[in-house]
């Protein structure tokens, strides 16, 4: 796949080894190659777009959505993992997107301004994944530390500083969230709800996707996308040769999957700062 390299400015960012790319004041991973691709393709009425801030439960939601759309075909869900969704962030040439069969499933972390304007159509289904930003930041910190081109060398407090300043990837977090949850025909997946009330949350997600899931099907989905199942798939992901330039070998992609781990990292002052961002 040949991707035309777009000229995107590079900036130094406190706590990062190689800095970040920046466009329109938004900090981006160094793996973003061409933003024009994500903006200029045409959406179809049966497209489904999953958006989120990184480390918010995106992979979990992706698996649920794929299985629901494909009638709980778990066996095939474990094959061609990279081809199940069109990953918009790095830059996917428009021809590849246009040639993809319907229904197309998209995943991305990009701010709304870098996506096609027709994403605002009421016909197109959007799913936004939201997680407590404190737990999200803890997960982000451990993830950043194990990246090759985007290694984070700072302390946790440095990441909190960046978050408050809107300088983490795809930030500011608050404007990212606000822009997506206000879109028409958008289903909000809350990470904590998937843990606390999975049956109710998955049933509602299925209804949004046009599927009336039985209790047995919901239980199957819960088991098929459990943290243990996701954790078991981690080695397959990391051992894929094309990921060696992205992730270090000691990366833990699925670390804990818990609620409230932030209490082990935040002091009271840092916690208040996160609560007051807007």
TrEMBL record:
Residues 45-277 form the Sulfotransferase domain. Keywords: Transferase. GO terms for molecular function: sulfotransferase activity. InterPro entries: P-loop_NTPase (IPR027417), Sulfotransferase_dom (IPR000863). Gene3D superfamilies: P-loop containing nucleotide triphosphate hydrolases. Belongs to the sulfotransferase 1 family. This is Sulfotransferase 1A1.
């Amino acid at each position: 796949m040949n991707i035309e390299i777009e000229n995107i400015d590079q900036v130094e960012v406190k706590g990062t080894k190689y800095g970040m790319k920046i466009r329109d004041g938004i900090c981006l991973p160094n793996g973003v190659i061409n933003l024009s691709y994500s903006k200029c393709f045409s959406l179809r009425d049966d497209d489904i777009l999953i958006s989120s801030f990184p480390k918010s439960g995106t992979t979990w939601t992706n698996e649920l959505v794929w299985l629901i759309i494909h009638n709980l075909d778990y066996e095939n869900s474990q094959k061609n993992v990279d081809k199940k969704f069109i990953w918009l962030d790095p830059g996917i040439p428009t021809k590849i997107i246009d040639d993809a069969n319907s229904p197309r499933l998209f995943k991305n972390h990009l701010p709304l301004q870098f996506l096609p304007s027709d994403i605002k159509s009421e016909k197109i289904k959007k799913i936004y994944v939201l997680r407590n930003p404190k737990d999200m930041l803890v997960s982000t910190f451990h993830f950043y530390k194990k990246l090759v081109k985007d290694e984070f060398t700072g302390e946790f407090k440095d990441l909190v500083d960046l978050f408050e300043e809107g300088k983490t990837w795809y930030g500011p977090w608050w404007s990212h969230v606000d822009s997506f949850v206000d879109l028409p025909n958008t289903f909000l997946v809350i990470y904590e709800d998937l843990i606390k009330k999975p049956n109710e949350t998955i049933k509602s997600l299925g209804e949004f996707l046009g599927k009336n899931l039985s209790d047995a099907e919901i239980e199957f989905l819960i088991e098929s996308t459990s943290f243990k199942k996701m954790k078991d798939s981690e080695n397959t992901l990391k051992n894929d040769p094309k990921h060696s330039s992205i992730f270090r070998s000691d990366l833990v992609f699925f670390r804990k999957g818990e609620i409230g781990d932030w209490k082990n990292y935040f002091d009271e002052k840092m916690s208040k700062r996160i609560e007051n961002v807007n």
